[in-house]
Write a structure and sequence with these properties.
This protein is mostly helical. 72% of the residues lie in helices and 0% in strands.
Length: 272
């Protein structure tokens, strides 16, 4: 009996070599490049579709982005105002806000494409990690962005609004594009920082680091979390703790998942 012809989906995939004894499917360099191209195309296609949807609500998301600034100005007793220096500046802000919203909407799809590409180099039993890592990565990314917008950004702007340089002739009138860019870059940085548990679990899973090593660096991670809190928040203890503690808790969460996986694995390997 002859084998049926391959489908169009199978034909688009790069050729794979038979799996080895460990269950790893080997792929030549050209196959990896082809797989990377395919994953990039699918990811950008999903991002473009999400961007088209985001354009319909981009103005509302821009208002959400600027709400911490507006609230801080009012609490500081300053008339809320932003300058648009260039004629196209409001439109550019609208496009930036729509793009970031598209990243949030399409993050499950984008992270799935990323982890699906990474899984090509994993053992067969490790590829199941992709189906857990992709939604967890997306959830943590969105949580990091919202944590910045709704939690940290109000404190940051309140500090800057109330800072007194001692100049009576100084007026505060920031630019629209610079203010939005400042918030968006911080939001994206927080979204990536919240990937810490996924990075820890993945590194431990593929053998880059052990649980014992993670335990040894725990105190340094604790100090690093407060260093990041001191850099990215105003110089008051409350706001620094508000950022440092979630970052350290994320590290502990990743370590806890690694320990749970090891106990589960050891239990499965134990003789009956």
């Amino acid at each position: 009996m002859t084998n049926p012809p391959p489908s169009s989906a199978d034909a688009s995939r790069p050729p794979l070599q038979p799996p080895d004894e460990a269950g790893t499917v080997r792929m030549p360099l050209g196959g990896h490049l082809e797989e990377l191209r395919r994953r990039l195309f699918l990811g950008l296609l999903g991002l473009a579709m999400a961007f088209a949807v985001s354009l319909g609500v981009g103005k509302g998301f821009a208002r959400l982005i600027l709400s911490p600034y507006e609230d801080a100005m009012r609490s500081a007793g300053i008339a809320a105002g932003l300058q648009a220096i260039q004629p196209a500046e409001p439109f550019a802000v609208y496009m930036k806000a729509s793009f970031v919203l598209a990243l949030l909407i399409s993050s499950p799809w984008l992270f799935y494409q990323l982890w699906a590409f990474v899984s090509a180099g994993l053992h067969a039993q490790e590829r199941r990690f992709v189906y857990l890592a992709a939604p967890a990565s997306a959830l943590l990314f969105v949580a990091g962005v919202l944590f910045l917008l709704l939690g940290i950004a109000p404190w940051v702007f309140q500090f800057f609004m109330r800072f007194d340089l001692g100049l009576d002739y100084l007026t505060y009138q920031p630019g629209l594009d610079a203010t939005v860019a400042f918030i968006l870059w911080l939001a994206l940085a927080f979204g990536l920082a919240f990937q810490t548990p996924i990075a820890i679990v993945f590194a431990e899973r593929i053998g880059l680091i052990s649980i014992a090593e993670l335990r040894r660096v725990r105190k340094y991670v604790f100090l690093a979390a407060f260093f990041v809190g001191a850099v990215f928040t105003p110089p008051d203890v409350l706001s620094q703790i508000a950022l440092a503690l979630p970052l350290y808790i994320l590290f502990e969460a990743g370590l806890a998942v690694c320990r749970f996986r090891r106990r589960k694995r050891n239990g499965a390997e134990a003789p009956p």
